[in-house]
Amino acid sequence: MIFRVGFGYDVHRLVEGRPFILGGIEIPHHKGLLGHSDADVLIHAICDALLGAAALRDIGYHFPDTSDEFKNADSKKLLVKVVELINSNGYNIGNIDCTVVLEKPKLSPHIDAICETLSGLTKLENGNISVKATTNETMGFAGREEGVIAYAVATVYKK
Ligand code: MG
Fold it and tell me: What is the whole-number distance in angstroms between the Cα of residue 125 and the centre of ligand 1?
């Protein structure tokens, strides 16, 4: 079986007055991520990793942030569409591994809920989805809590 690997990266600003939505769940925090959609930085990185693995361009190509259709869009729906696109191009998803870079809020208590949500959206078994978190040791924009970074890798294989 031939596996292909894809990589995704995304970043969104952290601002007052927005809900903090990450990996498809809302996490209590005094700031949230700013963006055209719900700004779910983790799901966006995962979408790009999946699209990249299948050489199907990127999230901005399929869901332009200039389009009213995707204003405040629920990123969970974008991920479902990306999975459909992957499948309709003859691929299955192998596994997904991600790292989120942020100082606060602590993600550890929410990792299980995020993995369960992502598992439901991708139809992947829980053991094939990994979400990790790290701080940036207070350095740079992530360290100053001005933004959140997400990295993801995904494998896909031909059905
Ligand atoms: Mg994004």
Answer: 25
Tell me how long the chain is: 159
CATH number at 105 reads 3.30.1330.50
Percent of the chain with pLDDT over 90: 90
pLDDT at 124: 96
Dist. CA 13–CA 16, nearest whole Å:
10
* CB neighbours of residue 8 within 10 Å: 25
pLDDT at 105 over 90: yes
pTM here is 0.97
Q: How far is the CA of 5 from the centre of ligand 1 (A)?
A: 20
Residues with CB under 5 A from ligand 1 (ion): 10, 44
> Pseudo-torsion of CA 31, 67, 6, 86, nearest 10°?
120
Domain of residue 117 covers 3-158
Instruction: Answer for the pair 79, 98: CB distance below 8 angstroms, yes or no.
Output: no
Give the chain's domain count: 1
